[in-house]
Amino acid sequence: MSLFVPVTYNIPFRFLGDELRPSFFNELALNGAKHVVLGAGLLPLLMSRPELPEMVASEMEETGLSFVDSHAPYGGHWDLAAPYDAEQPLKVLRLKLAIELAAFFKVRTMTLHLGKKGPCVSDEEYLGTIFKGLDELLPFAAEKKVILCVENGFAYRGFPQKILEVKERYPEDTLGFCFDAGHANMTTAPESFQGTVGRRTTSEEILEVMLPHIVNCHIHDNDGINDKHDLPGRGCADFERIIAKLRTAPRLQLIQSEVNIASRGVAVRELVETFDRLFGKRGNFKSI
After folding, report:
1. Contact at 8 Å (CB) between 21 and 45?
2. Distance CA 108, CA 286 (A)
3. SS3 of residue 9 by DSSP
4. Is the distance from CB of 256 to CB of 232 less than 8 angstroms?
5. 174: domain CATH number?
6. Do residues 144 and 102 lie in contact, with contact meaning Cβ atoms separated by under 8 Å?
7. Angle at 253 between CA 226 and CA 28, to 5 degrees
8. What is the tens place of the pLDDT at every residue in 88-141?
9. What is the extent of the structural domain holding 147?
10. SS3 96
11. What does each C-alpha distance from 149 to 34, 64, 87, 276 come to in angstroms?
């Protein structure tokens, strides 16, 4: 017996204006896609243009597409660990608006980045900033029926201890994990990265410790060194092993393609056919 787990596609909204976006939605639908990620590139646009949420909802309805998951904007002032005390209220307010937009589109999960830990920041300060944000965001997300999912970083930076500590602080189901297969595959640091944080680890360890709390996942490939967000099969990630393990994740709700089709030169048909081959045409792969 199997349980329907949808596959959803992250698309480059920043390159799609009002004229091109409906055509791209149609291209996705004609090639068999059913769901699109309410992504980090789209959410700031929706915030800045009050008329845009209704426009996008109408365009998606016309092509039969829907949002089922979301990814909050990230980097700098967006990340939970962003060490700007004076801007903490604004950061929380922006993320609450992102959650509100997710609820508008009836999206039930949102991935968040914890953010980088600076060299002069202690573990206590780093986690304290994260906790301060989540103390406000989790009750709001629960009210909107959105599960917040924290994502693992690059494997070469060490064991994913920080997200485990975050989960220990918030055992409620409103907080889950997003397993990023590409990040877990990066076991070798690129030359530009100076040093590592924590003990080195493997992608198998990361998946194993995150498994009980994985709600959504990011599927993309790389060479083990650079975060390429490439099509599965173009890198060295072991997706046969990853998929077999994800079958046993008790909270898994969806599979997300986080392939960067713009930078990697991936055609829509190639993208959808690859994920159909890996997960089935209806994502109908999870055992129960």
Report:
1. no
2. 19
3. strand
4. no
5. 3.20.20.150
6. yes
7. 65
8. 899 999 999 999 999 999 999 999 999 887 778 888 998 999 999 999 999 999
9. 2-287
10. helix
11. 22, 26, 22, 25
**Rg of the chain taking only CA atoms, in angstroms:** 18
Percent of the residues in the chain that have a pLDDT greater than 90, as a whole number: 72
Tell me, rounded to whole angstroms, the distance of Cα 17 from its chain centroid.
Answer: 23
User: Can you list the alpha helix ranges (DSSP code H) found in 105-237?
Assistant: 123-144, 161-169, 181-185, 203-210
Domain count for the chain: 1
Which residue from 77, 103, 81 is spatially nearest to 90, judged by alpha carbons? Answer: 77
- How far are the Cα atoms of 98, 125, 141, 248 from residue 176, in angstroms, in the given order? 17, 22, 12, 16
- Report residue 40 as tokens: 């980090």
Compute φ and ψ for 247, nearest 5 degrees: -55, -25
Give the length of the chain.
288
pLDDT at residue 42 greater than cutoff 80: yes
Tokens, residue 59: 């365009």
pLDDT digits (tens, 9 = 90+) for 184-221: 998 766 665 545 444 567 788 899 999 999 999 999 99
Q: Token pair of 161, please?
A: 């201890």
